[in-house]
Amino acid sequence: MAAPSSNTCGLTERSIRERVPPLLTDLYQVTMAYAYWRTGRHQEPAVFELFFRNNPFGGGFTLFAGLQDCLLFLRSFRFTDEDVEFLRSVLPPATDPAFFQFLRGLDCSGVTLRAIPEGTVVFARVPLMEVAGPLAVVQLLETSLLCLVNYASLVCSNAARFRLAAGPKRKLLELGLRRAQGPDGGLTASRYTHIGGFDFTSNVQAGFQYGVPVAGTMAHSYVTSFTSLEEVLPKTLVAVNGDSTPVDIILLTKGWLSRVCELLGSQPGKIHEGELAAFLSYAIAYPQNFLPVIDSFSVGCSGLLNFCAVALALCELDYKPLGVRLDSGDLCRQSLEVRRVFRLCSEHFSVSAFDSLTIVGTNNITEQSMAELNEKENEIDVVGVGTHLVTCTQQPSLGCVYKLVEVRASPRMKISEDPEKSTVPGRKAVYRLIDAEGHAFLDLVCLVAEAPPEAGVSVSCYPLSCDTSCVSVIPAQVICLRQDMFTKGQVTQPLCNATETRAKVQSSLQTLHPRHKRLQEPDSYTVALSEKLHTLVTEIRKGSSNNSNFLLAN
Amino acid sequence: MAAPSSNTCGLTERSIRERVPPLLTDLYQVTMAYAYWRTGRHQEPAVFELFFRNNPFGGGFTLFAGLQDCLLFLRSFRFTDEDVEFLRSVLPPATDPAFFQFLRGLDCSGVTLRAIPEGTVVFARVPLMEVAGPLAVVQLLETSLLCLVNYASLVCSNAARFRLAAGPKRKLLELGLRRAQGPDGGLTASRYTHIGGFDFTSNVQAGFQYGVPVAGTMAHSYVTSFTSLEEVLPKTLVAVNGDSTPVDIILLTKGWLSRVCELLGSQPGKIHEGELAAFLSYAIAYPQNFLPVIDSFSVGCSGLLNFCAVALALCELDYKPLGVRLDSGDLCRQSLEVRRVFRLCSEHFSVSAFDSLTIVGTNNITEQSMAELNEKENEIDVVGVGTHLVTCTQQPSLGCVYKLVEVRASPRMKISEDPEKSTVPGRKAVYRLIDAEGHAFLDLVCLVAEAPPEAGVSVSCYPLSCDTSCVSVIPAQVICLRQDMFTKGQVTQPLCNATETRAKVQSSLQTLHPRHKRLQEPDSYTVALSEKLHTLVTEIRKGSSNNSNFLLAN
């Protein structure tokens, strides 16, 4: 059954300290913090940026997620005495004890975070978050922030792709908990796949903690645990309306089974009694939510017949059965046959409830098989996806990085021999340019001190894809992408629950032209540097900038 | 630096309830539990088995991990009032209120768990765990147990493969936290990759919580944050032995830099002053643990020269530098050049410390690049692996399943149209047969009531790979693979810490013949059913067994 959750406590700070203690970081963050402290630079104002270098899954877009957890993490960031004692045991014995006092007193009251809102469509190399504050502190935050953004954004983007592949009408159910990277991985997956466009999750805790609607009915083990109709208790059911005399539902069902077999020309001898017992006991427990899995033995020879018999008996008592689940074989082909039988029963026995039964399909669905399913004729209303959704089989990591761009108001740049690994220096502002049709067409990365681009005014910029040539564009509308999210130890924007962020995802995807949303070989979206930023990059690269730092003399 | 952790609290039950609350399960477990309860079958004794169908990564073996967390989960399994209230909001309104009282009183005091010890080499289709107890309870445990075993075993097996690919001498460092499936995924990865054969982790929390040795030194951001030698403070260092007068380490290093440039014929003009400042400040903070990353600009033109200069200055003051890290480009080629320069310095300046410097390599290492690295000439002593290790790129899920095999002492079997998805019925015992050379050669799955196979006595069995033909084998030794692990609410075996389980992994891998450990196209290991079990399967399949459950009459 699919029951929308009544709990919407997705905003609570529950267990963020438990999930992301400050020691959940790479040791080098701590060793660097000490070296900064030792040389007296730990309080220097520094700015880091978080971004990724390529859209995942060969796609044309990414969804930014994980921000809310980052904000809660910043708010709770503090080393306990126990943490500090452990660090003392790990760092070299000669480490100055005053450093540990410094660590004990640290928090994020000096940290400012500007970010693109969670659930926004974003692109490679656009800085999603800017983290500014004392050098040692913002360095210490790196690994945790990356960990919180990387998987959340990846799995949210994956869900959005499955959503696109499935088409708008089909409902999507996430059921990957057992295949995720452990318990918290599973919970994170359920939360962010819902945000990315899935309708339900099988994960009860995700319903409890984040208000994601939960769904689920029965496994094969329930079916195979029954062998005989003797095991069905109670054996009666009371009709919804009218007569309150308990009806022998077993007898009623057996009668319907005969008629169904006759209608379909099926052999009763191939029908599993245990399966019928399982369906009956389930229907007695859930007369208004009957949706069994019908492929434990054979859909055509047993499961479908047993379902129809029990469902017809329920209908006779004025209950409304929900449907069936198929969990193996060719889902499309089977769904057509199942629907044909439902229609036949509806006509032959005049039960209109059989016209609106739901067919759920679950069987190792990939993005590709989802897309194929959307193209082939079939009657599947709800698709359940597990492994390939939560583990992101196509590309199991996003590869976000966190790079230093400014220290003491002076821009910093990593010039790598691999040009893709070079960073863009300086503190920035990011604008999204919208065309006359309302489609986003270019993200412009500027220096923060520059005047923002204006609607209707031509702006020159340098697309990152081609390193030298300048282009001019005229936006119909300009959106400033990043907002202040955290300052002076406080979260400065209202936190959204999963439902709100989910709506944000869909509206943000709406602004993107379909050509960028094609799952295969999409047109790439343009990200460009402003002229001033491009000049700064060129100057630093030439070593001719004022920030030259070559050792010219010994 | 690499500091073995002083904390070995891997056995604590900390946060297992927080990590794996009883609601962290698929909704259908709860809906089935109610249906069992409603039909009065919830207390029936039932047995489930947990196993996987294929070794991961196309390999010949798997390592079983996650058991300890399963045991702690069983011990703490209990619904709170809040949990039950949430379930009440999700289940249909007509659900009998007495069911929620039943849930509130549930625990695992009636559950027995037999399992193969954690860290053992295991194979596809061998039941790793047998969970026996009241039907409704053991059904409710399914998702959580799968979630705890699936990723732990997968990433542990992946680590063991990287360990085999790397060869025995090289040290391995795990640094995947930022790319894992969220915080707990990262922590799980650090714990089980250590168990699988990695030596260190960068993850401090894994050191704190599980006693995994932690390691790490500096990132590129540390280097790029410096521009000038002016930023180095203090500018002096005191020699280890003898004279306590502070020495001007900057001056000393500049002198060494001149000599190094002269020795190598390098141009001082290409040396980054910021990088030198970063190295110097780091060396002053960690004079006994100096190991910088040397590729921020150019290894040959800047990083290596700066390292040698600082390290030679340290040596002059009787400190012992540790080595360097390479993080981009062709690691093998660069390591050879770096080693050549170290040897040259050692000879030319008579500093023996340069003979034992460590070279760490980290750059998007895959299993394949690790294997190539092991075949090519290189001088890398420590390899750091992140993304491909923790996300298991090659195959990001193991696919463990949990299947019902017995109810009320009667065997149960799922007969699927897909033969691989059929299950093996009945309660079992599992024996590992060892040959005269001490190598495991066959895992025998028997019915629990059968006499165990004996050393030196021929035993007939049916390998699972070929469905019909019988083979006879004579074991030199027989090991009973599974042990009682949990009964009457208590864990009945001593829990092992990560170090102990890590040793178990290596000794278990030792018993496996190398032909099964080949990373590509290994010989497959034989798993076989006993004659009696094979007969039972055949009977049930034919529908001719005593447990026939076809509906023969309406």
Describe this structure in words.
By secondary structure, chain A is α+β, with helices and mostly antiparallel strands. The first copy, chain A, folds into two domains: 2-159 and 396-542, Alpha-Beta Barrel (nicotinate phosphoribosyltransferase); 217-390, TIM Barrel. Chain A has 19 helices and 24 strands. At the A-B interface, helix 2, helix 4, helix 7, helix 8 and helix 9 of A face helix 2, helix 4, helix 7, helix 8 and helix 9 of B. Chains A, B: Keywords: Ligase, Phosphoprotein, Pyridine nucleotide biosynthesis, Transferase. Chains A, B: Its EC number is 6.3.4.21. Chains A, B: It is an enzyme of class 6 (ligase). Chains A, B: It catalyses: 5-phospho-alpha-D-ribose 1-diphosphate + nicotinate + ATP + H2O = nicotinate beta-D-ribonucleotide + ADP + phosphate + diphosphate.
